[in-house]
User: Which sequence fits this backbone?
């Protein structure tokens, strides 16, 4: 697994918890390009590429376990090698689900590492609006369609990114070029199919794990025009935490950290420092 590390530019004394960022299904560390420098002013910052995507190794189908539990376990194992006593975890979409399950696994350890969670439109067990779409890609026809998308990913990448934004005019050439690393690579679609294959059991496992992290302070942050994970479903997730803040940003889609980075950074920093 490849990751980026930005050391704190002006470390606080005593040192603040590090911050680790976990991308969504077809994203990678590039997704956090508007956020990393901001948080690295006073904290060590990390951004991972999960196994199978971005610049991390891409094992052949069947050669690695891409279930949610395996992804969470790999993430937690990586975080434990970084030498920090506390880490705040920021996850989005599929990466948000990975972050929650990693926090649950962390709770089984006598030396707790994950202090707080920031979840930007995370995948979760109550997102009923997305279940039919995900179930479709588990069917034989759905998998064939995904392979077809892989064959012409270069032509569809702009459309796919556009659906993630509320205002497509905010998409820069840099954004399109950055995501092309995944969207133009057929192996990315194989990875996505492997993730979706165990989705139902993964969400059941995550739902069972939520009580173990109910005490962790959580910031739930959504874009009001999210077409991938509805903001309304976040209200159901909020009920699973005793110390949860729920924020919806107007005129923003599924990627608030890209579409409204200044507001995202401000709200996340306030939550981490409060």
Assistant:
């Amino acid at each position: 697994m490849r990751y980026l590390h930005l050391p704190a530019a002006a470390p606080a004394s005593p040192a603040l918890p590090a911050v680790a960022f976990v991308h969504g299904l077809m994203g990678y560390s590039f997704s956090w390009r508007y956020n990393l420098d901001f948080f690295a002013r006073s904290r060590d910052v990390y951004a991972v590429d999960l196994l199978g995507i971005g610049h991390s190794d891409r094992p052949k189908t069947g050669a690695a376990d891409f279930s949610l539990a395996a992804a969470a376990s790999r993430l937690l194992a990586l975080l434990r090698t970084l030498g920090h006593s506390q880490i705040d975890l920021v996850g989005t979409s599929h990466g948000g689900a990975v972050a929650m399950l990693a926090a649950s696994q962390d709770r089984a350890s006598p030396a707790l590492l994950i202090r707080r969670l920031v979840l930007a439109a995370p995948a979760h067990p109550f997102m009923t609006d997305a279940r039919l779409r995900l179930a479709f890609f588990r069917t034989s026809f759905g998998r064939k369609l995904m392979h077809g998308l892989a064959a012409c990913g270069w032509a569809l990448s702009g459309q796919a990114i556009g659906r993630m934004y509320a205002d497509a005019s905010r998409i820069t050439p840099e954004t399109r070029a950055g995501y092309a690393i995944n969207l133009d690579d057929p192996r990315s679609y194989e990875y996505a199919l492997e993730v979706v294959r165990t989705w139902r059991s993964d969400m059941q496992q995550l739902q069972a794990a939520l009580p173990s992290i109910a005490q962790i302070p959580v910031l739930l942050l959504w874009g009001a025009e999210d077409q991938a994970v509805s903001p309304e479903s976040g209200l159901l997730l909020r009920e699973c935490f005793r110390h949860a803040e729920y924020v919806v940003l107007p005129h923003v889609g599924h990627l608030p950290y890209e579409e409204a980075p200044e507001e995202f950074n401000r709200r996340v920093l306030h939550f981490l420092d409060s």
User: Anything to note?
Assistant: The chain has a mean pLDDT of 91. The first strand starts at residue 3 and ends at 6.
